[in-house]
Amino acid sequence: MTPSSPAGLGEPVLVSPLVRALPRRTRLAIAGARLAGATSRRCGLGGGGVIGGRVALKLDPRALERLGRGRTVVLVTGTNGKTTTALMLSRILTSLGPVAANADGANMPDGVLAALVAAPEAPLAVLEVDENYVSEVATQLRPACLVLLNLSRDQLDRVGEVRATERELRAVVSRLPGTTVVANCDDPLVASAALACADPVWVGAGQGWHGDALACARCGQAMTHEGVDWRCTCGLARPYPRWTLEGDRLGLPGSGSVPLGLGLPGRANAANAAMAVAAAVRLGVPEETAIERVRSIDAVAGRYRRARVAGHSVRLLLAKNPAGWRETLRLLEPYTPVVIAVNSREADGRDMSWLWDVPFELLAGRPVVAAGERATDLAVRLTYAEVQHTVARDPLAAVGSLAGESVELVANYTAFRGLKQRFGDG
Amino acid sequence: MGDSAVRIGLVLPDVLGTYSDSGNATVLCRRLVWREIPAAVTEIHYGEPVPSSLDLYLLGGGEDEAQSLAADHLRSHPGIQRAAARGAVVFGVCAGLQLLSTGFLTSGGVRHEGLGLLDAETSPGKRRAVGEVLVQAASGLGVEPLTGFENHLGLTALGEGSRPLGRVLAGTGNGDGTDGAVTGRVLATYLHGPVLARNPALADLLLGWVLGAPPAALPLDEVSTLRAERLRAVKGGHRA
Ligand SMILES: [Zn+2]
């Protein structure tokens, strides 16, 4: 991916009116960030944004607050769909003016800061934030709008308690009375957090995964689910949504519904679109404009796009956790050969147990290759799923081993990142 | 399914499934079916009665609140306790280990009564034990070294009525150099992964108890390769 701020070493540091108003310490921090970012890019160490952001936060710990001041900021968080929803929102909000965005998915404070540094004059900012950093980022940026997508367990061994995340989000929401919260009311954990806001915009965006939400977030008792409704004896219950996703149709506030007709596949992306449209309309974009702009998106940060690899047309898909894998396996073209690439580095989570929460049984009846650094763990899972497969640790060699034109390549986080780099899109 | 089918109970998968524990049921079921022994998995959900008629019960991992819910439910519907009394096999992992024991303290300091099938008490430790584990199984069980992944805060002390599943060679386990607990045909461990996918000998030990004799050999190349990889990783010092 091309870095969005091409400010290279030796170029004059761009000083916008906004930047000029900043304290010297913050200006220095920004200059430091640009320098570090450019050096990192020149040395081939990647986009450079994150290292730049890290440098800036060292030089001025309040840089985030200062760089966000005077802008309309939207934060997007949740376990799945952050990058896609943020892309949708920035595509929509561009109709109002220039938008600063961390489209590279660098969603910790340093990545967020880098996005603001890269677009100092943009009056709008759409930033995806890792759910465990929302408190820190939102406290400094005081966003106009906070979009809460869903909460389910991500990496088992790193963060663990999704409930602790919910409590933290709830606390942030109650500390920010001026922030509009747009929340998925079909996710009980999200709803519990959003209820700390006086007047949230509820979206019935659906939930594919109930595994982490049986015990009530508020009182720990067992909740009951009936159709789309869920409730607890303590009073926590599904709020009535303003916007409702029904298959591919989006039910509008008031009455009526429109077909979404997205360029991106799958139920999860329809949910992301519903959330993005609801947030954009709340920020003043007309409904039709919002929906039209969301339709035009057909790739997200290298996902869903096709690449020529070893004589095949390969579609690259990312899945990071059981909920994401369930959605992604449903998107696969029938009968098309599949390569599954899984690693277990720090960013993926070291624990591979999640493989057993994914219905790999769905892959039976087509050629399957297990790849990635933990290909053996996957091969054992596929064996017990009675899915015929071969093993080739290198994902590109795995693609090369297949016959036929089209290949679906599904990878988890670091495996996906590695592939994007090898496709010349890193 | 005829009377000869082995009936496996997956206990509260909606509450105790944090470490993808249904994988253990998948493994046991396939290992029976591949040997042409009929098998069926019954999911016992929260709020439903717990049957006492099954042959083997599996309890998995869960966070504090979920574990407390499970303890209440399983004490008020004592199907597992009745089944164990007539010799059914019970296997617990992580929270499952704590639930099967006499009692456990959650991190909030509240003690919950367990099912009392294992003589063990658990209290929260200072920091989470997270990473790859290697356990030398107790002699007499006749199983190879156990490989798995652990992620828990609990420190478990065994009483006279249970003996450890084995000795920890790498990792934390119970926190005193041992892992797990065994009393009769009730067996539990801190290892997930799922542990039966990584340790076919342990899976077959449980199945042998149900069948009354050790099942026929079932070599799987993928599993042997995985075991070799995981043993190498833990010996190379990459515990996480
Ligand atoms: Zn409640």
Give the topology, please.
The complex is a heterodimer of chains A (426) and B (240).
Chain A: H1 17-20, H2 24-42, H3 49-59, H4 63-68, E1 72-77, H5 82-93, E2 99-101, H6 109-118, E3 124-128, H7 134-141, E4 145-148, H8 162-175, E5 180-184, H9 188-194, E6 201-204, E7 224-226, E8 229-231, E9 243-246, E10 249-251, E11 257-259, H10 267-282, H11 287-295, E12 306-309, E13 312-318, H12 322-331, E14 338-341, E15 368-371, H13 375-384, E16 390-391, H14 395-400, E17 406-411, H15 413-422
Parallel strand pairs in A: 1-3, 1-4, 2-3, 4-5, 5-6, 6-9, 13-17, 14-15, 14-17, 15-16
Antiparallel strand pairs in A: 7-8, 9-10, 10-11, 12-13
Helix pairs in contact in A: 2-3, 3-6, 5-10, 5-11, 7-8, 8-9, 10-11
Chain B: E1 6-11, H1 22-33, E2 39-44, E3 56-59, H2 64-76, H3 79-85, E4 89-93, H4 95-100, E5 101-105, E6 111-113, E7 118-137, E8 146-158, E9 166-170, E10 178-179, E11 181-183, E12 186-189, H5 195-198, H6 200-211, H7 221-235
Pathway (chain B): Cell wall biogenesis; peptidoglycan biosynthesis
Subunit structure (chain B): Forms a heterodimer with MurT.
GO molecular function, one term (chain B): glutaminase activity
Folded structure, characterized:
Chain B: This is Lipid II isoglutaminyl synthase (glutamine-hydrolyzing) subunit GatD. Chain B: It holds the Pfam family GATase_3. Chain B: InterPro entries: Class_I_gatase-like, CobQ_GATase1, GATase_3, Lipid_II_synth_GatD. Chain B: Its EC number is 6.3.5.13, 3.5.1.2. The complex is a heterodimer of chains A (426) and B (240). Chain A is α/β, with parallel strands linked by helices. Chain A has 15 helices and 17 strands. In chain A, the strands form 3 sheets. In chain A, strands 2-3-1-4-5-6-9-10-11 form a 9-stranded mixed beta sheet, sandwiched between helices. In chain A, helix 2 packs antiparallel against helix 3 and helix 5 packs across helix 10. Chain B is of the alpha/beta class and 240 residues long. Chain B has a single domain, classed as Class I glutamine amidotransferase (GATase) domain (Rossmann fold). Chain B has 7 helices and 12 strands. In chain B, the strands form 2 sheets. Chain B has a 6-stranded mixed beta sheet with strand order 2-1-3-4-12-11, with helices on both faces. In chain B, strands 5, 6, 7, 8, 9 and 10 form a 6-stranded mixed beta sheet that branches. The longest helix of chain B is centred in the last third of the chain and has 15 residues. The radius of gyration of chain B is 17 Å and the shape is globular. Classes of the chains: A alpha/beta (426), B alpha/beta (240). At the A-B interface, helix 13 of A face helix 1, helix 2, strand 7 and helix 7 of B. The structure holds zinc ion. The site of zinc ion has 7 residues of chain A, from loops.
